[in-house]
Amino acid sequence: MPALTNIPDWETFADHLHTGLGYTDITLKRTKYTYDIFVKRFCGTEGDAETRIEQGIEQIGNAFDSGEISKDKLLRQRRVAYRMLQIIKTGEITWKRIPLYSKKYGNTVNEALLASFVEAESRNHKHADSIIRRDENIIRQYILFAESQGFNIVKVNAHNIIAFLAYMKTLRPAGLHSTTSALRHFYLYLVETEKTDSRILLAIKPWETPHKRVYGIFSDEEKKMLLDAADPVSDTGKRDKAVLMLAMDCGLRSSDICNLRLPDIDWRNASVNIIQKKTGNQVNIPFSKETGDALADYILNSRGVSDLPYVFLKKSYCDSALTSSLLCGRLKKLMRKAGINRPASEKINMHTFRRSLGTALIESGESVEMVSQILGHRDKEATKKYISISEKMLRTCTLAMPEITERTEYHDQNEI
């Protein structure tokens, strides 16, 4: 679509937001406030519509850097501006991510190469979306490192790869496995498209991380304390209880809880049937009668009427889906209310429920294969991590100590 000479008016913009993103009337009312501020205060005055919006995006950044607007207003204004650019360039609005503010990018050639790699991975469904996004971020770090060191990522050698791994080791030692995985995915693509020599793959071998952190789990008593801390009367409290019970009972990741849709719940068979966001695996997980009652109570009495298909919705932002960060925030609040204090080293978050379920299943005598199937792991090695945090299983590994005989020692009084 050719560039427009005019900025999309509110009626056109609102219609695209409703059609493309499913915005409700209440959400549109809130968005109009942001739209009006952008058009009146930040939008440029010269050039076609695309140029004027890009000038406005630059003005938003300047306003934030000078302290005139907050980070929250910066993000809201940029979101509106980039949605408007989508209409101008493509004639529609999608959930495509907007560029992060102040994010660094490589040169045009390297960014084009990265974009083609990401597009191929998405098109061929080789990996889950979360893995593709992880690879994209790591390869962009690699591109920036390569440009700073002056080597070409296509005509690369083993020394360059090792130098980047050494650099990443200083930033995050435990993430070297992810780094080598992303590099291998990237260079496999370059080899398949005949852009580089296949021998470089010999330099990218699986990396064993120097240490594996053992994270904490919730005890049965702590789980009960958390459920008791949820307000049984308020809408938010009923939502909290349903989320907690679903996490405890099914071991769902926070991203899968947020993406859970009403049709995903099989009430007749008391189970949830989802495609995991991280792995892309389809899993069918049963839940208890208590969890079903909590879900039904929230959906029927507290969720309210909404055009959105998601089970769990925000209350403060008028009909928006929950986010993983919000779930973690709610958990921290309930932990404080319940008087549960855990050291930061244990990394207690929503994923702790998943670790707790995996550990409980292992301790009950379930096989690693069965636990892997229940949790939806692609690799059984991921499931074996739960064995390392099982105190009961670790006790079975103890060795008997030999009997120690008491020895009497005599000392010469004159010894110096």
Report the CATH topology name of the largest domain: hpI Integrase, Chain A
The percentage helix is: 55-70%
Number of strands: 3
Number of H- or I-type helical stretches = 17
| CATH arch. level architecture of the largest domain | Orthogonal Bundle
Give the rounded overall mean pLDDT.
Answer: 85
Order of helices and strands: HHHHHHHHHHHEEEHHHHHH
Secondary structure layout:
Layout: H1 10-21, H2 25-42, H3 49-65, H4 71-90, H5 108-124, H6 129-149, H7 158-171, H8 176-192, H9 220-229, H10 235-250, H11 254-259, E1 265-266, E2 271-275, E3 282-286, H12 289-301, H13 324-338, H14 351-363, H15 368-375, H16 380-388, H17 391-395
Q: What are the salient characteristics of this protein?
A:
single chain; 416 residues; mainly alpha; DNA polymerase, domain 1; hpI Integrase, Chain A; 3 domains; 3 strands; globular
Write a short abstract of this structure.
The chain is built from 17 helices and 3 strands.
Account of the 3D structure:
The structure is a single chain. This protein has helices at 10-21, 25-42, 49-65, 71-90, 108-124, 129-149, 158-171, 176-192, 220-229, 235-250, 254-259, 289-301, 324-338, 351-363, 368-375, 380-388, 391-395; strands spanning 265-266, 271-275, 282-286. The protein has 416 residues and is mainly α. It folds into three domains: 10-90; 108-203, Orthogonal Bundle (DNA polymerase, domain 1); 220-395, hpI Integrase, Chain A. β2 (271-275) and β3 form a beta hairpin. α3 (49-65) packs antiparallel against α4, α6 (129-149) packs across α8 and α9 (220-229) crosses α13 (324-338). The longest helix has 21 residues, at 129-149. It is globular, with a radius of gyration of 27 Å.
